[in-house]
Each structure stands twice: as structure tokens, then as C-alpha cells.
């Protein structure tokens, strides 16, 4: 390869590398969308995965148990008019707060009870699960013990047969012969 | 692709006349597919025209910790040092002497590049857990994704599918698919996936709906050498003392104590040694130590963080190997994905009695070179059989050593060379 071409290639590489470094967004770098959503099929999940999913859902339920909005939840994405819009909304919230609290009070109690019920059911389910595991383990042990007993019985039975054969009347007496 | 290779061939033969066409092609690629694609084409051209050695970057977010998966990746590049210019990419400080000490691997020809991730640095986290990244956060591993675009071949050796590969050829070494496809999942973007066992391959299909490309068992090198092995009546277990107890050392201690109680004569001279690594503060290990102390006359010994030489001599003198990792599991990841320590034991004619699941099924053939068990009761049953039959121990030990040869470092390197040679030939370097 000729020297000047090698140099040209090196130069081009440096240029491209510099441009590459300046791009922060990966999507721009590859000119393509890189992220997508993946639907999850809960039926395929293992026990541990289901447990962590349950924890995730429960913490979300706990987070949103109170339906009454607080002022920090009011924000705006608008650059210029965002601040006055937020200010007006917050004033409106302040004025109507007692009314909203009254209406949503029952909803909040209902939500709290639902979360408590879920937690209760989960604890119940865990206890039953533990019991089933213990029973399965015991059954496994019993199966192995049965196998050992069966083998021993076979041995005893074989010994008995042998003894019977040795002492049967038709068999010649060793000492006399 | 073919057009580009034709162009490169032309450039090789008529450099002056073909160069302007080559430049125009690079610009066209940049416009249509982005800067990264143009850069990749240039990298391929350099290798095709023999202007330099191909560059390989290997990443693992846990290179700073000792582990079987890390040993796998580093053994791989140790075998490839002559073929490639290699860069080891780590997120935490680590150096060549660590690799020498931990795995006996001389990687002095490889460069080490440390790329710290601000997200984890702010948390002062020693272990970088990808599972703690949610959709609300920016992907901290995109710093590594960007780095991947500087190599001809990028190998992701970590259990972390959040690195988006940008190189021409990308290889994901999957030790086990821990997470399901979720936020920032890019395993499907790699051009090749290597799996360490058939068990792992099965779960890659189930969890990710992907078919891995290459099956390469990990390298195991615990061969005893030429000295004669003096076997003692010792059972060993070699596994990390995990805080969650997933390696089931507690259950094995229980089994040993029950055996001692139920069959005092048959177990009279037998000793049980539990060997493994652990962090300083480990409540699970403390619990085991307490049990061992309370039953001091029962010959149970814990050996924590012992040097390699001591481990080697323990393998040489032991007769049985117990491993119950996977027992009463609640997730497939809790079963041994492969089972390197079982192979290490087999290399030393130690008869394995192991849990019947995961990668261990590929290693131990039940009744031929060891036993596979489903419960503690079965572990007792088969161990007792071995205690009482020296001939069986002898023949199974021989068979175990024979089987272990399938997982030797030599076999591993052979498979690695074959795989990467195929990659290079498809890249245009024959």
C-alpha cells in the first residue's frame, strides 16, 4: 500500500473518530432507534422473578395510594408560560383542596385497604408455599427411605430363600454323606 | 458488503485509482448509515489491506473481582494474544499482576483501559449491579457502548446486556441470561453469542427468544500433575460462601451430621471439608462456623479464602466431592450454570455426588463417573454406598478423570481459535 494513501486513510480515520466522539446520542451515531419495549409474559416467570415483580408492584401501589394531588406534582414542560401556568394551577389546588380531600377521602381508604389486602394475601401465599416445600422435602426423604427398606427386604427375602433351600428335607445332609 | 469487499480488493491492486472511489463510498455510508458505520468500514479496510493487526476489546463490569466468568473471558484473550491487539476494558482499577495472581494468566501483551461510570462512582459501589438501572435513568453503560465502536471485534464477557455493541463484529459471552428483556436490553444486537453450557443455551432461548451461535465450555485446569495421589477419607465441597446460601453448604453440613448420627460405623473416619471464598462480613458463613464449632467432634472443617496451592493439595487427597447448588431453587439462575469445581474435582479422581440439574448434568453421568441427586436423602444414600465400596470409588474416580478431559484448557483454546479464525475470515482477513 502506498504511503500517501495510508496517510490519507489515517487522516480520515482521525476525522471520523473526532466526529464520533462529539456525538453523545447513540441513536444519532447509528442513525437508528436502539430501544424498544418488551412485553413480559408472567406465566413464564420463575418464583423468584414473580416475587421481585410483586415487590415492584407493591411499592408502586404504596407510592400512589393517596389520590389527593400535592402541589409538587404540578409541573409544566412549557418554557415561557410554564411558570404562570403552574402558579395558577397551584392556586386552584389550594382553593379546592378541602373539597378534593373530601371527595377522594373514601378512595384513599379504599386504596389503603386494597394494598393491605394484597400484602396479607402475599404473606398467606408465602406461608403455604413454605409448607408445601417442607412437605415435598419430607416426601423425597420418605421415598429414599422406602427404597432402602425395599432393598433390605429383598436381601432378607433372598437370605430366607437360601436358608429354606439349605434346610429342605430333600437336601442331603452334609455330615452324613 | 460484497460491493465493499470488491472495492477493497480493487484498492489493494490499484491503490491510486481506486482510492477516490473508496473515499466516496465511506462518505456515502456516513450519510446513509451514520458516522459509526463509516468508521467501521474504515477499520475493516485497514485490516483487509493488512495495514495493522485486528483490534479486539473485551469488557466485563466485574473484571476487578475474582470469578469464574472473568477467568473465562481472560483465558479467551490469553489464547488470542498473538492474533489481535487486545484491550481489556474495566470499570474499576485492576492491573496485570491481579490477573497473574488470581488466574495465573500472563496478559502483559494486552492493554488495560479503565472507564469509570459516574452513576456507580457516585454511589461508591464496589459491585456494579446493572439490575438497579430503571427506565427513568440514562443508561450508564452507554459509555462502554461508545467505546465498543473503536474495535474490530468487541467482546462483552459480562452478565450485562445493557451495552449496545457498535463494532463490526460483536460477541456476547453469555454465562447465563439472568434478566429478561427489559429496559436497555441489547443482547439481540450482538452478531454472535457464545454460551458456556447447554443449560445456558436452553435458557437463552426461553428467556430471550434467541438462538446462541457457539458452545464453548469453560477451561478447567486443576490437573494433579504426575505425583501419585494419596487419597484420604475426605469429602470436599468447593463453592463460594454466598450470603444468600445458594450454594447450600448448610444443607450439606446437615446431611453429613445426619449420616454420622445414623451410620456411625460407616462414617467413622470420614471428614467433611467445606472450601470457598467469602467477604469478611458474611452472616451465612458465621452461621456455618457456629455449627462447625458446636459439632467439633464430627470432623467438619471450614476453609475460607485458602491459597491455590492448598486447594490443589486438598483436591489431590480427597475422595468424594459434594455439591448441592440448585437444591430447592426458586429460579433457574440459582442452579449451577456449568459447575467448574465439579470438573476440578473430577480431574483429581474425586468422585462427584452433585445436584441433578443445570450444567452439572452435562458433566456427571449418573452411576458412571459419579452420582446426581435430587435431595439430601439421596446425597446420603449414594454417599453411603461409596463409603462402603472402595472398588466403586476407584472405578468411578478413573471414569471421572477421563470425562474431565472434555473440559480441559487445551480443548477450550482449540475451540476459541477455531471460532475467532472463522470470524476473521468473514471479516476479510484470511
pLDDT averaged residue by residue of chain B: 93
Q: Regions of chain A with pLDDT < 50 over 5+ consecutive residues?
A: none
- Total of helices of chain A: 4
Biggest β-sheet description of chain A = none
Our Rg estimate of chain B from Cα atoms comes to 25 Å
Shape of chain B: elongated
Radius of gyration of chain A: 39 Å
Order of helices and strands of chain A: HHHH
Structural class based on helices, strands and sheet pairing of chain A:
mainly alpha
Structure keywords:
heterodimer, A: 177 residues, mainly alpha, 4 helices, 72% helix, flat, B: 430 residues, Rossmann fold, seven-stranded parallel beta sheet, six-stranded parallel beta sheet, elongated
Q: Quick recap of the structure?
A:
By secondary structure, chain A is an all-alpha fold. Chain A has helices spanning 3-22, 26-30, 47-63, 82-167.
Task: Describe the protein in words.
The complex is a heterodimer of chains A (177) and B (430). Chain A has 177 residues and is mainly alpha-helical. Chain A has a domain at 40-158. Helices cover 72% and strands 0% of the residues of chain A. Chain A is built from four helices and no strands. The termini of chain A are far apart. Chain B is an alpha/beta fold. Chain B folds into two domains: 53-219 and 412-427, Rossmann fold (3-Layer(aba) Sandwich); 234-407, Rossmann fold. Chain B has helices at 2-13, 15-33, 35-48, 68-80, 96-103, 118-122, 142-148, 198-208, 249-262, 283-294, 308-317, 340-347, 360-363, 376-387, 390-404, 409-427; strands spanning 55-59, 85-90, 111-114, 153-156, 169-174, 192-195, 214-215, 234-238, 271-276, 300-304, 320-323, 351-355, 371-373. A seven-stranded parallel beta sheet of chain B has the order 3-2-1-4-5-6-7, with helices on both faces. Chain B has a six-stranded parallel beta sheet with strand order 10-9-8-11-12-13, sandwiched between helices. In chain B, α1 (2-13) packs antiparallel against α2 (15-33), α2 runs antiparallel to α3 and α9 crosses α14 (376-387).
Amino acid at each position: 500500500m502506498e504511503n500517501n494513501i495510508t496517510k490519507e486513510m489515517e487522516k480520515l480515520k482521525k476525522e471520523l473518530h473526532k466526529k464520533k466522539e462529539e456525538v453523545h446520542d447513540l441513536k444519532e451515531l447509528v442513525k437508528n432507534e436502539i430501544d424498544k419495549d418488551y412485553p413480559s409474559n408472567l406465566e413464564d416467570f420463575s418464583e423468584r422473578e414473580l416475587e421481585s415483580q410483586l415487590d415492584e408492584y407493591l411499592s408502586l401501589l404504596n407510592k400512589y395510594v393517596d389520590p389527593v394531588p400535592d402541589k409538587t406534582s404540578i409541573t409544566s414542560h412549557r418554557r415561557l408560560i410554564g411558570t404562570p401556568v403552574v402558579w395558577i394551577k397551584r392556586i386552584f389546588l389550594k382553593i379546592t383542596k378541602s373539597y378534593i380531600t373530601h371527595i377522594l377521602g373514601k378512595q384513599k381508604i379504599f386504596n389503603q385497604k386494597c394494598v393491605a389486602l394484597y400484602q396479607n394475601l402475599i404473606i398467606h401465599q408465602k406461608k403455604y408455599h413454605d409448607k408445601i416445600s417442607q412437605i415435598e422435602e419430607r416426601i423425597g426423604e420418605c421415598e429414599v427411605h422406602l427404597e432402602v427398606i425395599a432393598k433390605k427386604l429383598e436381601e432378607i427375602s433372598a437370605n430366607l430363600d437360601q436358608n429354606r433351600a439349605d434346610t429342605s428335607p430333600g437336601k442331603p445332609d452334609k455330615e452324613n454323606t | 458488503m460484497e460491493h465493499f469487499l470488491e472495492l477493497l480488493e480493487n484498492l489493494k491492486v490499484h491503490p491510486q485509482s481506486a482510492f477516490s472511489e473508496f473515499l466516496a463510498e465511506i462518505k456515502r455510508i456516513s450519510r446513509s448509515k451514520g458516522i459509526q458505520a463509516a468508521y467501521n468500514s474504515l477499520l475493516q479496510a485497514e485490516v483487509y489491506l493488512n495495514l495493522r493487526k485486528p483490534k479486539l476489546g473485551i469488557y466485563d463490569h466485574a473484571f476487578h473481582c475474582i470469578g469464574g466468568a472473568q477467568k473465562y473471558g481472560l483465558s479467551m484473550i490469553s489464547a488470542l494474544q498473538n492474533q489481535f491487539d487486545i484491550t481489556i476494558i474495566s470499570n474499576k482499577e485492576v492491573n496485570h499482576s491481579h490477573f497473574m495472581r488470581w488466574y495465573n494468566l500472563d496478559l502483559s501483551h494486552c492493554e488495560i483501559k479503565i472507564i469509570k461510570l459516574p452513576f456507580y462512582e457516585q454511589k461508591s459501589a464496589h459491585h456494579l449491579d446493572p439490575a438497579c438501572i430503571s427506565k427513568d435513568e440514562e443508561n450508564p453503560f452507554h459509555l462502554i457502548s461508545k467505546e465498543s465502536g473503536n474495535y474490530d471485534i468487541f467482546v462483552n464477557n459480562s452478565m450485562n446486556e445493557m451495552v449496545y455493541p457498535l463494532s463490526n463484529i460483536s460477541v456476547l459471552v453469555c454465562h447465563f441470561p439472568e434478566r429478561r428483556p427489559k429496559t436497555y436490553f441489547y443482547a439481540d444486537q450482538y452478531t454472535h453469542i457464545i454460551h458456556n453450557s447447554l443449560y445456558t443455551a436452553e435458557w437463552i432461548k426461553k428467556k430471550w427468544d434467541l438462538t446462541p451461535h457457539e458452545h464453548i465450555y469453560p477451561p478447567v485446569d486443576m490437573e494433579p500433575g504426575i505425583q501419585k495421589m494419596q487419597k484420604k477419607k475426605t469429602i470436599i465441597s468447593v463453592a463460594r460462601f454466598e450470603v444468600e446460601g445458594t450454594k447450600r453448604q448448610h444443607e450439606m453440613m446437615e446431611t453429613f451430621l445426619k449420616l454420622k448420627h445414623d451410620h456411625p460405623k460407616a462414617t467413622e473416619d470420614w471428614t467433611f471439608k467445606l472450601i470457598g471464598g467469602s467477604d469478611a462480613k458474611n452472616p451465612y458463613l458465621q452461621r456455618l462456623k457456629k455449627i462447625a464449632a458446636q459439632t467439633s467432634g464430627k470432623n467438619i472443617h471450614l476453609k475460607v479464602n485458602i491459597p491455590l496451592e492448598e486447594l490443589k493439595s486438598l483436591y489431590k487427597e480427597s475422595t468424594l466431592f459434594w455439591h448441592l447448588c440448585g437444591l430447592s431453587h426458586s429460579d433457574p439462575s440459582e442452579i449451577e450454570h456449568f459447575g467448574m469445581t465439579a470438573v476440578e474435582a473430577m480431574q483429581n479422581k474425586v468422585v462427584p455426588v452433585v445436584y441433578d440439574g443445570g450444567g452439572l448434568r452435562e458433566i456427571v453421568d449418573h452411576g458412571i463417573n459419579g452420582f446426581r441427586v435430587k435431595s439430601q436423602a439421596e446425597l446420603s444414600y449414594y454417599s453411603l454406598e461409596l463409603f462402603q465400596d472402595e472398588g466403586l470409588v476407584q472405578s468411578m474416580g478413573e471414569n471421572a478423570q477421563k470425562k474431565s478431559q472434555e473440559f480441559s484448557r487445551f480443548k477450550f483454546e482449540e475451540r476459541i481459535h477455531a471460532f475467532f479464525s472463522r470470524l476473521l475470515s468473514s471479516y476479510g482477513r484470511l
